[in-house]
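Backbone Fold Data
Goal — fold tokens
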Amino acid sequence: MRVLLVGGAGYIGSHVALRLSERGHIPVIYDNFSTGHRRFVDRFEVIHGEMADYECLRHFLKDIDAVMHFAAKACVGESVSMPREYYATNMTDALTLLNATVDAGIGKFIFSSSCAVYGAPERLPITETTPRCPLSAYGHTKAAFEDALKSYSAAYGLKFVALRYFNAAGADESGMLGELRSTETHLIPLVLKAASGQSAEVSIFGNDYETPDGTCIRDYIHVNDLASAHVNALDLLIHKEESDVFNLGTGIGFSVLEVISAAEEVSSLPVRRLVLPRRPGDSPVLICDGTYAKNRLHWYPQRGLTEILRTAWRWQISNTAVEQAIVC
């Protein structure tokens, strides 16, 4: 199948493109390259376009069989202070993509959602039926777009899969792909930057949560495991033609301090820490129950935290010069 990956030159999208091609599909990358990188996807067909450009989307959707939507603003803390930008990109522009998809007669749509839709759930681990109570504009936009997909599915026959990621991390084992941002906000690359000396320390936002060591606990999932789940989701839409929603995580949570300690072990280098106040929008604990994805999507993660850190560290060391100059 020809699959349009909107935001496909980014971190997760580029890994998914590689997995799709390995499974015999044809990835077509649609990206404005504001944060994505051409070198991640130069082996594929690439379209430079905006998600808000309906006419451009309609032109290139003519020979597409399915759409995967990765393009979004995705910083929880920033979304609390800049909700206008998040609703504009993650809702207004994304609805343009959704309308263009339906108008082009495409019936298969896969959406990168987030565990941020759950907020701070009372019960753990989190299942797909856990109530959605977002704490940030980012989480609200993800939940709202899920609702739009359900409405479009009922009205227009669009079949979709929404994948609620927990914390994506790691890098492709080939060394060709990894996290590369001008402004990094994710814990694991920030910890490894501190280990490698690219930064003086790693910031810990809050050490007074009701967790064993006082720091937030998250479920970290390797980016290649996430990528495989997208291919399985496409298979589900091809063969079952039924819409569904899945959590994607390992079911194991690690605190910020545990991640830092594990990174020190993998890198054999110390990491300095700076404790700061809590950030608005952060949940104390987010841990996935992946039972439904295992049974229905026939997917379960293959890699744990050590492998996540090893691949991320290998990427960090080999791309230090590139990260300093961010060459697209």
